[in-house]
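stage 2 :: seqdesign
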């Protein structure tokens, strides 16, 4: 049997029709007795060294580099803390609703009128999102959201019906950080709200996920970059299409410095998915070259098992610059003491043969910048003393025009993706 491992797939794969009714119902005008969130997650670096840079959020995880989250506060109760996945691969902010009885909800922190005197829900306005992980649906609400020192009133989802597959992850919801101004639930995204309210002058954020071995944890900065988290210059690549996601052209993949010869591939830059997911033919080719004459130990076309001590150089190219993936990041969980390991690169198609999903296994080794204003993604080496091109001392000019995103499917059908996620977590042999 192959080892069971949790893999978070927080990318949007479909959207149902969103009702656009908007009568506001205030659920509770009177705050009930203060309720502390019931679940406290163990974390790797619970008190990370705080960056000296303002507008910075600590990114944490509970070990194993599976899911990365930040803490936000919701509502009028200043001690109501919710851990949400940092997810550049989806659009919406949602948390588990207090009225949800599904296992995924009740085993995590839930939010509702008991937690906030300022919560408003929109009567009859629903949201429904399919993630690679499973489906989430619920109602749309408005309340105060505090993150990185900002406290804004905005719309988000209260999840009422959540797939059991979310239960495994130590989070209370998802913070979608797509390149779109709008969430699927119809409200402006958190970055758009911060810009609209004049709290940030640039629609830019940057992420250093970090690994479980990093003592100071990960970090996200909002409104600019954090020069204490990267070194050298930022290399930018323009967003390749108008889908409202961080999708860029990928030059190629390099094994031991040799180009693999892939062309016309796009990469979805997705901090919310644990692994690197690429179409099966491409995954097979890369693994063959990674192991050389040692051979692939076994594969079912999705999962790959190779020698744990493989140290072949692997890199991905963006905008003419190659970004290496440490072998400790592409080698995954060991199997039963036989010196063989699963890899963190799976043969999975998220959008036909054209798109590679670059998840945390790749992103944790680098610093990434999400520049909505210029619709580009920046890549930089982790380190300190980076060159902050955003700190030019000049006025920032007008913010980007609001775009109307076309929400889309990233997989042929929900069914085919469900089959894939099953083999992801329970590949038996
Ligand atoms: C992380 O969370 C999972 C699921 O809740 C749990 O099984 C695992 O023990 C946690 N890991 C650590 C290191 O706390
Ligand atoms: C955010 O502002 C609201 C309205 O003033 C307030 O009720 C709430 O406590 C604030 N949240 C935090 C975390 O300060
Ligand atoms: C969640 O709970 C609702 C209400 O009880 C139920 O209808 C739905 O089937 C549940 N969803 C899952 C995934 O169990
Ligand atoms: C690769 O990862 C290992 C283990 O985390 C670390 O010791 C090593 O320094 C890393 N190599 C590079 C080039 O970053
Ligand atoms: C990897 O481990 C195998 C035994 O599992 C050993 O035969 C081989 O020499 C090792 N390779 C390297 C590069 O250390
Ligand atoms: C998916 O692939 C199709 C065809 O290659 C392309 O037109 C579409 O933009 C892609 N979707 C995304 C989200 O990149």
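stage 2 :: out
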């Amino acid at each position: 049997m192959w080892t069971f491992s949790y893999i978070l797939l927080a990318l949007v794969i479909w959207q149902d029709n969103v009702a656009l009714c908007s009568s506001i119902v205030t659920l509770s005008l009177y705050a009930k007795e203060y309720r502390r969130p019931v679940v406290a997650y163990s974390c790797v670096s619970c008190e990370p060294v705080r960056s000296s840079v303002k507008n910075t959020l600590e990114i944490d995880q509970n070990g194993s580099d599976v899911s990365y989250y930040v803490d936000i506060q919701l509502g009028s109760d200043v001690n109501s803390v919710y851990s949400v996945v940092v997810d550049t691969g989806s659009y919406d902010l949602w948390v588990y609703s207090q009225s949800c009885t599904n296992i995924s909800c009740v085993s995590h922190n839930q939010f509702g009128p008991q937690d906030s005197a300022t919560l408003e829900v929109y009567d009859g306005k629903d949201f429904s999102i399919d993630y690679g992980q499973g489906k989430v649906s619920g109602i749309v609400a408005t309340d105060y959201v505090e993150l990185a020192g900002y406290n804004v009133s905005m719309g988000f989802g209260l999840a009422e019906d959540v797939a059991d597959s979310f239960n495994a992850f130590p989070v209370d919801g998802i913070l979608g950080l797509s390149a779109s101004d709008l969430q699927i639930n119809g409200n402006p995204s958190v970055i758009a709200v911060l810009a609209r309210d004049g709290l940030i002058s640039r629609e830019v954020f940057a992420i250093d996920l970090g690994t479980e071995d990093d003592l100071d944890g990960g970090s996200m900065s909002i409104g600019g970059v954090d020069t204490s988290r990267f070194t050298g210059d930022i290399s930018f690549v323009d967003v390749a299409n108008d889908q409202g996601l961080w999708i860029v052209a990928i030059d190629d993949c390099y094994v031991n410095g040799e180009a693999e010869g892939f062309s016309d591939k796009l990469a979805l830059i997705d901090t919310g998915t644990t692994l690197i997911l690429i179409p099966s033919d491409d995954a097979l080719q890369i693994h063959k070259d990674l192991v050389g004459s040692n051979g692939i130990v076994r594969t079912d076309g999705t999962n790959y098992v190779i020698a744990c001590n493989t140290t072949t150089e692997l890199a991905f190219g963006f905008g003419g610059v190659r970004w290496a993936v440490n072998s400790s990041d592409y080698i995954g969980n060991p199997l039963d003491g036989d010196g063989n390991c699963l890899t963190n690169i799976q043969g999975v198609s998220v959008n036909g043969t054209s798109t590679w999903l670059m998840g945390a296994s790749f992103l944790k080794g680098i610093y990434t910048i999400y520049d909505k204003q210029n619709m580009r993604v920046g890549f930089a080496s982790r380190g300190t003393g980076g060159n902050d091109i955003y700190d030019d001392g000049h006025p920032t000019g007008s913010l980007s025009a609001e775009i109307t995103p076309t929400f889309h499917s990233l997989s042929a059908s929900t069914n085919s993706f469900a089959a894939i996620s099953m083999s992801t977590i329970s590949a038996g042999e």
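stage 3 :: structure notes
- Residues 12-221 form a domain with the Cathepsin D, subunit A; domain 1 fold (CATH 2.40.70.10).
- Residues 414-426 form the longest helix (13 residues).
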